[in-house]
Structure formats: structure tokens, C-alpha cells
Amino acid sequence: MASQSEQPHLPLPAGDIGLLTDFYELTMAQSYFAEGMDGEATFSLYVREYPPERGYLVAAGVDDALDCLTALSFNDASVDYLRDTGVFTEEFLEYLRGFRFTGSVRAMPEGSLFFTDEPILEVTAPVIAAQLAETIVINQVQYQSLLATKSARCVMAAEGRPLADFAARRTHGSEASLRMARASYIAGFGATSNVLAARRYGIPPTGTMAHSYITSFDDEAEAFRAYARRFPDRSILLLDTYDTIDAARIAVDVAKDMEANGHRLTGVRLDSGDFDDLSRQVRRILDDAGLDYVRIVASGGLDEYELDRLVQGGAPIDMFGVGTRVGVSADAPYCDMVYKMVCYDGRPVMKLSAGKSSLPGGKQVFRQYDAHGRMAGDVIALEDERHESAEPLLALAMSDGRRILPPSPIDAARQRVADGLAKLPDQYRKLRAPARYPVSVSAGVQRLETQIRGDLSAGRSQGA
Amino acid sequence: MASQSEQPHLPLPAGDIGLLTDFYELTMAQSYFAEGMDGEATFSLYVREYPPERGYLVAAGVDDALDCLTALSFNDASVDYLRDTGVFTEEFLEYLRGFRFTGSVRAMPEGSLFFTDEPILEVTAPVIAAQLAETIVINQVQYQSLLATKSARCVMAAEGRPLADFAARRTHGSEASLRMARASYIAGFGATSNVLAARRYGIPPTGTMAHSYITSFDDEAEAFRAYARRFPDRSILLLDTYDTIDAARIAVDVAKDMEANGHRLTGVRLDSGDFDDLSRQVRRILDDAGLDYVRIVASGGLDEYELDRLVQGGAPIDMFGVGTRVGVSADAPYCDMVYKMVCYDGRPVMKLSAGKSSLPGGKQVFRQYDAHGRMAGDVIALEDERHESAEPLLALAMSDGRRILPPSPIDAARQRVADGLAKLPDQYRKLRAPARYPVSVSAGVQRLETQIRGDLSAGRSQGA
Question: Could you give the domains of chain B?
Fold first, then answer.
């Protein structure tokens, strides 16, 4: 099956994307329009603080955000609706009717590791366009990056055991379920149960059977046999509908019959109870019957912490189905990702709000490596600074409203996460209380900040 | 503006909905198909355990789930994709190509209060169709109910002060942002900042201004004046870009100039810092200038716990913008909502998995009221039981794949939540450690359960 990841899959009809915005973006835009303020602005997307226990973040949703910007427009229904609010002028509504995003975007590629305060992307555009981009850009990048990060943590905890995304039913809607499948695959999962995601993104689909399948037959053995008959080379039998250990013995009988017909039972699945204890008991039952090739799959309530406990404890589980807790990034369902103006009309700007101040000016992030190729620290610098021996992370992705860099093929993004995690020293990858990865601010940014703070306290004018 | 809530807004193209399912639903379906198992099955959607601190839940997403079932089908891209997996027979693929959901659904109306173990909806359909409905039904109802519940808790905490949904940028995708606006409005919020949601659902749009607006002007006063000039009767000035108290004094000057021109400043917004302290200082500054009509809006990091603290502490805040924490139901981003087979081919069934057993048989939920009209306890009964003095909550919503009951207009759903909360005694509505609302299981269900458990332990056959 060819990957279909190159096709954009907008989360909304293109003509509706313009309205997927906060009302104030439109009132501010009308004010800019009326004041004749069409200066170019640069906005920076970054995370202020790590969610609990996170020492790194994985960028995802960047390509969706860029697809949305490319398509951002206002259809008739939207323009008519805005007119009916009575808040907007005809001139401004006409402007919106013809609106296309004509800005440029520099961005980290999908799957990049990033850290707090580092711009993941920067939009430079006439101020109205840059402002109208805010809501949809944060909306797409924030949660997808959280899901990719949570998934990457699971991959680390599983230490090579394959993981599958089982989250479809518990994500926040169908769009989120598709992006969860994609984000978890990028982070290193091997498969998804979400068939539409598998089709759209070219991810291997996977699945076993549900309790309802078992209960719709007269007994468990009959259900197992019916399934094995239909899928003789890809049957994973669910053991916990009535009693897991009894079911394991029935699975042995079924597997023996399959052997007699030249087939092999692929696996059995545990979905409740004490996975450590049950997996050992079931492994023994299988092994005693000479079925050492039958794999044990566990699912239900898993996250990186539980995976770590099972893997470190030596539970003989070969594969994990990971759902709910990862699909909503349960211990960190949101983070403080913001989109802040850093430059207006050639003038670097910043806000000083308590605990929420921003770094002024358009920027570049430089990544430094040690002699062994391991990540040694990032520098947040001004866009035009040069750091010869370091890797610049933001690349021009969009210019004049058109994609310059094509979207990352999903396998390229997946490789990028794997490479990043391999280069990130252990102390920053720990599941709990990771060390803080060194991110410094260049002398250029610091000088600019000092200068603006001085100007502001002198005259409440934030000009550089 | 007329409400557009009657139009269905499918989260996905109709022909893609069939594949928004877990892969095992399709492999099980193929097995049923091959075995000639076309018996009618009933599945029940319910929540096993309350999320932390919840004493009630608000049903939302039921109408979206029904819209998805009405549209559930497999387009050519989906059928071709399934063929390419090599797992499915041509006969089964042909069946899917012509598939339409022809079952019936009994459901609680949108906005109903419900409790653990109570079916929110029950699907009765040929087993394949009932099974294929699982993923999308849970996917739509679970998170929307969580968002409506979290929002209702905010409404209780705000004690009459208006709330606005500011969550668009931090929900899990655009679909979730639209449903958050809808769920929070149903729960009693007064407005949303999400303009597309406002258009689609007929919710009043609202908004103020962003920090970037302030920083794009030479100084704060100039920004305030430009906005007030454009929106002389709906300006809410953001105070915390540089220093909240300084900005309040500037806002006073602007408001005085507006008065001179026959206009009134609507409000000021606090977005960071200690809201209790700042709101008192800002109120004093405004009142001292004779601007007692200028309202104070607070936003940033709010949830029901923080709203409760501010309201009980007497902070002079007139309106709240509620975003991130409510838009992802941060302290409970998922719950244990499941869809379980309770009847197959006329035979009640149940699963016994540790901590996850289900109640057998198709059901009705009856709500009892005391002499004062307050909710006094629910009874989970068999579908054909009668409880004369109690209110049955599940109504036939869909028959033969067609809607019998039209979707609830959004205002009707909103009224239903308000009525339900008004009738729910205080001890169950508390924000923390609420009492457990009495939900009992009828003698009929209990008899059936005892009988099936006996049959199962006797013969590992779960027939009734």
C-alpha cells in the first residue's frame, strides 16, 4: 500500500478555515484595516513551560498548520455571517472575501525535537494576515505536539517492543483520532487500529477482537475457532471476557488445532487485571504447550509509566496496545503554547506581562552537538545571527503564501524523531524529573531585550 | 442571527465515516458475515466510573453520533483500501460498499444529566452494523460529555456571572474546538470567541483584543484609542501587556474621552497576575473616576476551582473568559465510557472481566423525583419494565436507520441542562467530593444477571 501522506487533509473545508478563529482576531483586523496599518509583523510560536515530567517536546501538526494557512479563506457563508453581526464594515468584509494568506513561514520540520522558549515556527506577513493565522496555528500544533511527545515517551519506555495506537474512541473527536494515529506513528509506534488514519497516512492497520465478539457466540471456544477459521494467519485471541487463565487454556486448544492445519496462532491479548502476573501465567501455559511462538499483547490503561513498570519488571509481554491515556496526553492534555508578536513594521516588540514576557525579534534556533554527535545545547538567536558550527532548525517553509518545502513524508518525520531521540542524552529523556536541556539566549537577543525594556521604562514606548 | 443548529455538521465526509473505526470492528464483521451471523444485537453506551470530583455528567455529542450513524458508509477509496490490505473477501467488500446503518437507537436527549452505569444510548441492529457503530459513537459522545460536564461545573461556580468560551486554540483540533463551543453553550455559557462555532450553532460571538494588538502600536494609549474609535460601543481593553495598574489609569483617560463623545467603555480585561487583588485595585481606579459601569473581565488559567475561589472571595469580576483547562477538561480529559453488547439474537449477554463487568439486557433508565420536584434517584431497568411514577430517560431517536426524533435545537439542550441542574440536590452538584447520586438496578436486571452468572459458571455458556 502506497503511503498517502503527501495529500493535504484539511481539518475543515477551506472556506471555513478563516472563521476558525477567535472573534478578537477579526475585530483587531478591522481596526488595523481602518487605521491603514499594513506593516509586516512577525509572530513566534513557542512553549513557555514544560508539561509535567517532560524534558523535551516533539513537533507535530506543523504541516497541518501550513496546509491550513495555504487554504485560509472566507466563503460566502462566513462573510454573510460576519455582516449579520453588525460589527464589520463593508470595506473590511470585501477585503476578507478576497483574503488569501500571502505571508512567509519559517518552521522546524515535522518530528523535530524542541524545547521551551524556542520558536517552532515564525510567521511573517502583513499584520492582519499574521494575526488571522494565530488560532488555527496554535490549534493544530499544540495538541499534536503533545500527542507526539507522549507517544515518544511510550516508545522510550517500551524499549523496542512494538506499540500500536488503540486510542480512536477516546480522543477528542475524529480529527484528533486521525492526528493521534499520525503523531504516534511519527513518534515510533508501529501500527494503528484507526482504519481511516491507516488509509490516509499509510500507517499499518492492526487489531484483534472485542469482548462483544466473544459474547455473541455461545461460548469462548466457539468464538476463538470462528475467528481463527477466518484469519488463520493473523488471529490474536482476547482472553479476559470471562476468566483470563481459563481462556488461555482454550486458546492453547485452538492453537493446537491450527497447527494441525498448518497455521499458527499469532497471539493472545490481555485487556484487564494484573498484566505482570497474568502475562507470566499465560506465558507459562503457552510455553508448556510448545507454543513459544504465540505472542502476548497487552492493552488497557497503558501509558509510559505503566509500560516502564511492566518492561523493567520483566513481564513477558511482546506488544502493547496503547489507547486512552496517550490519545489525550492524560497527564498533560494542554501546554502553554503561545503565538506572540516579536516584530512589527521593522521594529522588534515584546510583552512584559507577569510571568508571560516574550523575547523580541525574529529568530533562529541553533542546535549544538558534542564530539560524539550528541545534542549539547540550543541557542535562541536573532534571525540574522550566524553560529557556524551549529545546526539551524528553522527553515523557510512558505513564501508569499506558497509552500516552499513540501510537507514531510510521514516516514521522514518518523526518522527525524528517532534520530533526535538517539542524539538526546539520557538525562533529558528520563520519564520522571528529567534534567533541563540547556537552552541559551544569544547575546544579540539579550541586547535587544535590555534595550526595549529600557525604552519602555523610559517612555512607555516599546520602539527599538 | 438565526440559529443554524438544525443542520448536521458531520465531523468527516460521510463516505469516510465507515473507516473511522477500529480495525477489529471490520475483521469481526467479516467473521460474522462469513459465519452467517446476522442476529440482532443491542449495545449499551455508558460510563463505568465518575471522573475525579464529578457527581453527575452532562450528555453531549449524542446528536453528532446519530448524524454519523445516519451517514455511515464506505466510499470507493475506503473499499479499495480495505481490498489492498489483503484481509477481506470480495463478498464482504461488496457488502460494505452497499452498507447503510439500518438499526434503531434509543437515547437520552442532548443535555440530559446522567450517572454511572446508566445507558446514554442503546443501539439495536444486525450485529455487524451495531459493531461498526462502536468507535464513532464513543468518539463523539465521550469527550463532548466531558466538556459539557466541565463547563456545567464552571457555570455552577460562577453563580450567575456570564462565562465565555475562549478555548479554541487549545482544544484537540478544530472539530473539538467547535464541539467545545457548543458543549459549553449547552452547559450555560453565554458566548464563544470561536467565530465558526458561533456561525454554525448560533452562539453569540465575543472577544476583546490581544497583546499583539497593543504591541503593534507605539504605545498602549494609542492602541486603546484606536480600538475605541473603531468599536465605540463594544470595547474591552486588555490591561496586562506591560503593567495592569498603569494600563487601568490609561483606560480611565480613554473612557473619559469616550464619554465626551457620547460613548461608554464596555470593559477592561485582566489576563495574568493575581486576579483577586488586581480586580479590586482596578475596580477602585474605575469607581474613583466615576466609571462604575465599566465591567471587569478576567481570563487566563480559569477553571471551576479558580472561579469558585474568586467568586467566593468576592473579587469584583463581572465576566469570565474560560479557555484551556475547560476546553480539554484538564483534570479529567477522558472517562471510562464504553459500548458493550448486552443482547445478541434475543439472548441477554454480559462480560465478567475483572472490574469491568456489564449489566445484561436492553434497558431503560427511570428518574424519580421527590415531592418538591427534586431528583431523588434513578433506576436502571430492563427495557420492557414499567415504573409508573418515574420519568423514562431513553427515547426512540432512530428507527430503521432514520432519525425519528429530530436533533435537539441547541437552546432546547441548553434548557435541559439548566432544568436538570436546578432539580439536582446540592450534595450531588458540589465541586469537590460530591455525594453519590443514588442509582439502583431493578429487580429484573438483577434476576437476569444472577441467572447468567449461574449459567456461565455451570457451563461456560452465557445463554439466558
Answer: 14-139+338-459 (3.20.140.10), 207-299 (3.20.20.70)
Q: Which three cell numbers stand for residue B156?
A: 455552577
* All three cell numbers of B298: 478576567
ipTM of the assembly? 0.96
* Mutation target vs B (from A24, A178, A218, A278; most B CBs, 10 A cutoff): A24
**Closest residue to A174, CB basis, from B20, B195, B211:** B20
Residues of B in contact with A11 (CB under 8 A): 173-175
pLDDT in 10s for each residue of chain B, 464 residues: 434 444 678 999 999 999 999 999 999 999 999 999 999 999 999 999 999 999 999 999 999 999 999 999 999 999 999 999 999 999 999 999 999 999 999 999 999 999 999 999 999 999 999 999 999 999 999 999 999 999 999 999 999 999 999 999 999 999 999 999 999 999 999 999 999 999 999 999 999 899 989 988 989 999 999 999 999 999 999 999 999 999 999 999 999 999 999 999 999 999 999 999 999 999 999 999 999 999 999 999 999 999 999 999 999 999 999 999 999 999 999 999 999 999 999 999 887 776 777 888 999 999 999 999 999 999 999 999 999 889 999 999 999 999 999 999 999 999 999 999 999 999 999 999 999 999 999 999 999 999 988 887 776 544 33
Each residue of B99-123: pLDDT tens digit? 999 999 999 999 999 999 999 999 9
Pairing type for strands A163-165 and A57-58 reads: unpaired
- Taking the C-alpha atoms of residue A27 and residue B227, their distance in angstroms, rounded to an integer, is 9
Task: Select from B193, B208, B218 the Cβ nearest to the Cβ of A461.
Answer: B218
Q: Do A246 and B344 touch (CB under 8 A)?
A: no
Under 8 Å CB pairs connecting chains A and B tally to 364
Does the pTM exceed 0.90?
A: yes
- Closest CA relative to residue B169, chosen from A14, A61, A29, A400: A61
Across the interface, whether the CB atoms of B231 and A87 are under 8 A apart is answered yes
pLDDT tens for B200-255 read 999 999 998 999 899 889 899 999 999 999 999 999 999 999 999 999 999 999 99
Is A63 an interface residue toward B (CB < 8 Å)?
no
Flag if A138 and B166 touch (Cβ within 8 Å): no
